[in-house]
C-alpha cells in the first residue's frame, strides 16, 4: 500500500517538473577579476573579429574530430609475471631469539625484528651499553648497522618510576 502512494506522488506532474528543470537558467561562468575584465573589454573593442572567431564552429575540424578513432591495447610484457616471481631470490629467515615468544612465530626475515626483540635489545643496550654495542646487536639480530644506530638513537624504552609519598598521612587507603 505504501509503495503505491509513494509511486503516485513520485509520478505526479512529472512532465511539468522536468520541463521546469530543463528551462531553468544554466550556471554561468565564474566572474572575472576587475583588472582582467577591463583588459578583455578593451581587447574585444579593438579586435571585434576575435569574439566572432571564438564563437564560430569550424566544420572542417569537427569532421576531422568525428573521424578520430582510438583503439588501444596493452603491450605484451616480455616476461610473464610468474617468471619474474620465480627469478626473485628466496628470502633468508632466522629463528626468534629468546624463549618468551609466541609459538606461532616460526621464522623472521633477516633484516627485521619483532616488537619484543626490539624492546629487549633496547633494554639491554640501556642497561649495559658497553656490552650491547650497535655492532653486537646488528650481528646478533642480523640487522644493518645504520638501522641499529638509528634505532638506538631515536627509540627508548619506557622507564617507570614510583615515587614514595613524602607524607604518608596524605594517602589514606579505604
What does this entry look like structurally?
By secondary structure, this protein is mainly α. 50% of the residues lie in helices and 2% in strands. The protein contains nine helices and two strands, in the order ααααααββααα. The protein has helices at 2-11, 14-23, 34-46, 49-55, 59-67, 81-87, 115-127, 134-141, 145-154; strands at residues 93-94, 108-109. It has a two-stranded antiparallel sheet with strand order 1-2. It starts with a helix and ends in a 20-residue tail after the last helix. The model has no long low-confidence stretch (mean pLDDT 79).
Q: How are the secondary structure elements laid out?
A:
Elements: H1 2-11, H2 14-23, H3 34-46, H4 49-55, H5 59-67, H6 81-87, E1 93-94, E2 108-109, H7 115-127, H8 134-141, H9 145-154
Antiparallel strand pairs: 1-2
Helix pairs in contact: 8-9
Amino acid at each position: 500500500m505504501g509503495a503505491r502512494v509513494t509511486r503516485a506522488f513520485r509520478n505526479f506532474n512529472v512532465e511539468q517538473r522536468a520541463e521546469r528543470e530543463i528551462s531553468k537558467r544554466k550556471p554561468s561562468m565564474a566572474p572575472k577579476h576587475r583588472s582582467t575584465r577591463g583588459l578583455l573589454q578593451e581587447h574585444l573593442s579593438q579586435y571585434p573579429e576575435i569574439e566572432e572567431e571564438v564563437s564560430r564552429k569550424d566544420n572542417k575540424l569537427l569532421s576531422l574530430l568525428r573521424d578520430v578513432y582510438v583503439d588501444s591495447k596493452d603491450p605484451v610484457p616480455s616476461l610473464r609475471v610468474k617468471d619474474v616471481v620465480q627469478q626473485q631470490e628466496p628470502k633468508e629467515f632466522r629463528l626468534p631469539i629468546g624463549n618468551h615468544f609466541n609459538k606461532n612465530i616460526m621464522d623472521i626475515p633477516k633484516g627485521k625484528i619483532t616488537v619484543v626483540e626490539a624492546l629487549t635489545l633496547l633494554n639491554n643496550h640501556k642497561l649495559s651499553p658497553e656490552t650491547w654495542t650497535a655492532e653486537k646487536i646488528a650481528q646478533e639480530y642480523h640487522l644493518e648497522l645504520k638501522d641499529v644506530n638509528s634505532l638506538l638513537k631515536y627509540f627508548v624504552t619506557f622507564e617507570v618510576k614510583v615515587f614514595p609519598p613524602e607524607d604518608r598521612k596524605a594517602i589514606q587507603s579505604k
